[in-house]
């Protein structure tokens, strides 16, 4: 009998299934029991009956056959709630399953068990919503799990599941992965299809997975990545992500790496600057990378960009605004009011000019360096209820500066990977590794090198399991 969920990575759980050491049905029972007992508030909906039937019928020869799987609540899974983490859509039900989740289930064999908490519409990098309350960081109750994939990250780091879906439009995989001490990959834009019914603007969003190891990410890529006609910007399928993992390391010897903890734009905790610089230099020495100095100053896209992005949310609300304003998180409601009042053709033009400048700045940086290393988050996880009670933050790390290190790679589309490099005051610290477009495999190999040389805890030491 399995008393607790698997505490290793998803790939090793599949190995245990295939050896007969555990069964998918036993694993599911342990998972459901752990979620019921958890105080993390990582899951917002469970479908145990359907999951049990799928676990009993699981084909463990599939890549993730029988693995319990959380679905980020901003995604869509037919028959389950389709709330977008908002009170406005609390009673809506999904009529379709999104492409990547369908592939994970049908081709990968995962067993979807329920929805994981997210910030409302994915608009905030915190783990708070009016609909679901606060999701806590398993490393320290009372700290944020980040956002918008905070529930997925907390569930994985908290020992509840080994895999859960994520999405990243400005750091929403990498930010919570950094706060919760796990790897988190934002692939080249289009690597994983976003359909059906793909929302095109602002062309910064990618989907992915919250997990515990680099090989889990690669296996997930093998299952879900590749072109789909419902996403006209999706990329052709590339085979052999897991099989080829580590194969680029020798060819990287002599490659140029720039270690710029703040990317020239963010205010980063000096202790984290030191940790990132030390970890980056160690990685360079380990692989044989050539450290180069690059004068970086990735531009922010400012107020105009933020307001312009609210156009897709306005369309989503489809006539419900402004009557629904009291049901919205204060920051979302404020943003919509500001956009409605101030956004103009002139602001849109300035936003597009700024985006072009960002493209040029990132491209120029990669003309000088093959790899750019930075911090993932400017500081460790801040107070969980920061957005519910702003005064809680006090002098602690807050969200104002968060996202500055991750957003540039969403704007331009480069692959970037968050990897844990240690802890500060008992909370995880992460390092971000980025490369040129389509060099996802190279980035993942560098992540593998970090994982081998300084293995991270697969589950938070304070996790309830």
Blueprint (SSEs and pairs):
Layout: H1 10-19, H2 24-37, E1 43-46, H3 48-56, E2 68-72, H4 99-106, E3 111-116, E4 128-129, E5 133-134, E6 136-137, E7 140-144, H5 150-157, E8 163-168, H6 174-180, E9 184-186, E10 206-210, H7 214-224, E11 256-259, H8 270-287, E12 290-291, H9 302-308, H10 310-317, H11 330-342, H12 345-368, E13 371-375, H13 407-412, E14 416-424, E15 427-435, H14 440-453
CATH architecture: Alpha-Beta Complex
The CATH first-level class comes to Alpha Beta
How much β-strand is present in the residues?
5-15%
What is the average per-residue confidence, as pLDDT, rounded to a whole number?
93
Indicate how many domains the architecture comprises.
Answer: 1
Instruction: Please name the CATH topology.
Output: Amidase signature (AS) enzymes
Compute the number of helices.
14
SSE sequence, one letter per element: HHEHEHEEEEEHEHEEHEHEHHHHEHEEH
Described by its quaternary structure, the protein is: single chain
Structural class: alpha/beta
Q: Compute the gyration radius: what is it? A: 21 Å
Q: How many strands?
A: 15
Q: Roughly what percent helix?
A: 25-40%
Low-confidence stretches: 389-397
Spatial sequence of strands, sheet with the most strands: 9-14-15-13-11-12
CATH 4th-level superfamily = Amidase signature (AS) domain
Label the overall shape.
globular
Measured between the Cα atoms of the first and last residue, the distance is: 16 Å
Major beta sheet summary: 6 strands, mixed
